[in-house]
Design goal:
alpha+beta; three-stranded antiparallel beta sheet; disordered N terminus
């Protein structure tokens, strides 16, 4: 009955078995946060990702000033969210070594997804999981995960998922834990599971259980309405309430230590953790089971608060340019994003109105106080939410690694953020290896397709189309008045944060 699985396992035995090594199947490094000395995938509690730092050439700037070595960070924002090292270490272990939800999908079903792809069976296990990562935008784990992508785990004969599926990203050829996964397409995975359910009787294996509906979740690869997904799971819908909020780019986890407010609109309190757990319901864990593991998820919150931003390591920075850029930043940007360096470093938790920002309004307009009040009736609304009608100006520590930019991920590089004429209407990223990162423009290398694709297809969702609802790249015109020289200095300062 289950010959397909048996044949695949036979092909995967021998040298290919257990291909997830201690450094991940490909041995890829991870960036380190500031002050981290770790070399492993997760490392210690404070600053928990390992690092590859490019060697400095010991050079100097053209005017003789000493250069800032690659790997140095200048951001000095004060920590406002404390963590306990022991709890943070346990939270890290939960994400790396344990499972958070039951095995929601039989591994046999997932291992035979190639049937839904309409392709020949992959040659071996390594080839299969490589295709899974490529097809669904998943990331290779930087630690031994049994060959599975980051965020997917084995549990009691089944496969389950955890936070790292969406909160483990890859940039410039390395993996950053706590960075948004800007390539994942959960809807493509859901569509193929549905196709498997149709094909299962023909091939003699059980139909996959699909306990969740992810249709319409993915606007483009990496651009998910995760908040809407969590909102739907927080409790039964009520008439007149919005349940879709457009795509959002998840803020990096290492920013949590600096903030009093969370989410792209600042509607949640950073001291809480219940709302962060809502999407776990999609992965098979019940609300009752979540409450039973409240202390474990609190430990994960301590781990998140312990993370430090990654340092720029792609070039030697010019301190003269950085000093000029800092002056520009503090004059034009700091009132919203905060003073990041020096004795006066502080983050204001500023929420800009739509009138002030002019950025895509969908997320801010759809999460009203009515939606906040509904969420506050549930366990996930502790501490309570408050609608803001705007967007939280995030801290910019580690900003170089967080492309694409804006709350919806609509701008591929910082040059486009600072010059609205440089923003493509449609763009498709080329990858997340070192050669796909543009250090000059500080962001993602991309191509610009001329024709709007079909967002209902996996291939179509590889293109970010800013003409679609919720995906606009307008607004935030604060850098348009800068000269080219001023913009270059500001970029140099931002690289080093």
């Amino acid at each position: 009955m289950f010959a397909l699985w048996a044949l695949c396992c036979a092909a995967c035995s021998g040298a290919e078995a257990g291909d997830g090594s201690a450094a991940g199947a490909g041995g890829d490094p991870t960036f380190a946060p500031a002050g981290s000395g770790g070399a492993s995938g997760f490392g210690g509690a404070a600053g928990s990702a390992g690092i590859e730092v490019m060697a400095s050439d010991g050079g100097a700037t053209t005017d003789g000033a000493p250069a800032v070595s690659p790997g140095s960070c200048r951001a000095a924002l004060p920590r406002v969210q404390a963590f306990e090292p022991a709890r943070a270490a346990h939270g890290e272990a939960l994400l790396r070594d344990e499972t958070l939800a039951p095995g929601v999908l039989p591994e046999m079903v997932v291992r035979n997804l190639w049937v839904a792809w309409g392709t020949p069976a992959p040659a071996n296990d390594r080839a299969f999981w490589a295709e899974v990562r490529a097809r669904y935008g998943m990331i290779e784990a930087p630690f031994d995960n049994g060959g599975l992508p980051l965020g997917m785990r084995r549990e009691a004969g089944g496969l389950t998922f955890d936070c790292m599926l969406c909160h483990g990203g890859r940039v410039a050829g390395t993996t950053l834990l706590g960075l948004a996964n800007t390539t994942v397409d959960l809807e493509a995975f859901y569509e193929d599971l549905e196709r498997m359910a149709e094909l299962a009787p023909m091939f003699g294996f059980p139909a996959p259980p699909i306990p969740y509906d992810l249709e319409g979740l993915t606007f483009a690869a990496g651009a998910q309405d995760a908040f809407g997904l969590g909102f739907r799971f927080a409790g039964p819908a009520a008439a007149g309430l919005n349940t879709s909020f457009g795509p959002q780019q998840a803020p990096a986890w290492w920013l949590l230590q600096y903030k009093d407010r969370i989410y792209v609109d600042g509607s949640g309190e950073a001291s809480g953790h219940h709302s962060m757990m809502a999407t776990m319901v999609a992965f098979g864990i019940t609300p009752e089971q979540l409450t039973e593991r409240d202390e474990d998820f609190l430990d994960i919150a301590h781990h998140i608060r312990s993370l430090e931003p990654p340092c720029w390591s792609l070039s030697t920075l010019d301190p003269q340019q950085q000093a000029r850029g800092q002056a520009i930043f503090e004059a034009r940007c700091a009132s919203c994003h905060g003073v990041h360096t020096g004795d006066g470093a502080a983050y204001p938790n500023a929420v800009g109105t739509l009138a002030e920002l002019g950025t895509d309004p969908v997320r801010a307009q759809r999460f009203r106080q009515a939606e906040a009040d509904r969420l506050n009736l549930s366990w996930f609304g502790e501490p309570p939410f408050e609608a803001t009608g705007g967007y939280l100006a995030q801290p910019l520590a580690g900003i170089w690694a967080r492309a694409p930019y804006f709350h919806n991920g609509s701008v591929p590089d910082l040059v486009g953020v600072l010059d609205s004429s440089q923003r493509p209407v449609r763009w498709r990223r080329l990858g997340h290896e070192l050669e796909h990162y543009d250090a000059e423009r500080v962001g993602l290398r991309h191509e610009v397709p001329g024709v709007a694709p079909d967002p209902g297809t996996r291939e179509g969702r590889l293109v970010y189309d800013t003409t679609r609802e919720g995906m606009g790249n307008g607004g935030h015109l604060f850098g348009d008045a800068l000269t080219d020289a001023e913009r270059s200095d500001l970029l140099e300062y931002l690289r080093g944060l």
